[in-house]
């Protein structure tokens, strides 16, 4: 434990949305996660991810002064073990690709747009 009491790790990322149920369904489909719309209850929905970092979708239902603005630069990324395969899968789903694959050796990334026009990065290995 640090002097500040903070742990040196990220606990969760927040994705702000205008339509919580639509975003929960979209991210569930993107990540091949089970989805039950009856479990989505405003103002937040925690995606059932694996690992140590949580992903919370937030529609700000209890914040009347909140004005939604999409995030145009990625603030988090998803990992892929085969970036070219992931790119083709995303393209086949009709998901908007806002930045094509960029390579740095055998690693690369591309950006997509969620239903609220937030930009999300997909990073991973590019098999030879």
Describe this structure in words.
This protein is an alpha/beta fold and 128 residues long. The protein is built from two helices and seven strands. The protein has helices at 20-30, 83-92, and strands at 12-16, 44-47, 54-58, 77-80, 97-104, 107-113, 119-125. The strands form two sheets. It has a four-stranded mixed β-sheet with strand order 4-7-6-5, with helices on one face. Strands 1-3-2 form a three-stranded mixed β-sheet, covered by helices on one side. The chain starts with 11 loop residues before the first strand and ends with a strand. The relative contact order is 0.20. The model has no long low-confidence stretch (mean pLDDT 93).
Rg: 16 Å
Can you write the helix and strand succession as a string? EHEEEHEEE
Query: What is the subunit organization of this protein?
Result: single chain
Give the CATH class of the largest domain. Alpha Beta
Biggest β-sheet strands, sense, barrel: 4 strands, mixed
Give the termini distance in whole angstroms. 42 Å
β-sheet strand percentage: 25-35%
> How much helicity do the residues have?
10-25%
Low-pLDDT runs: none
- Individual helix count: 2
What is the strand tally?
7
The name CATH uses for the topology of the largest domain is Signal recognition particle alu RNA binding heterodimer, srp9/1
Q: Give the neighbour order of strands across the main sheet.
A: 4-7-6-5
When the domains are counted, the total is 2
Which architecture name of the largest domain does CATH use?
2-Layer Sandwich
Structural class: alpha/beta
Quote the average pLDDT: 93
Q: What global shape is seen?
A: globular
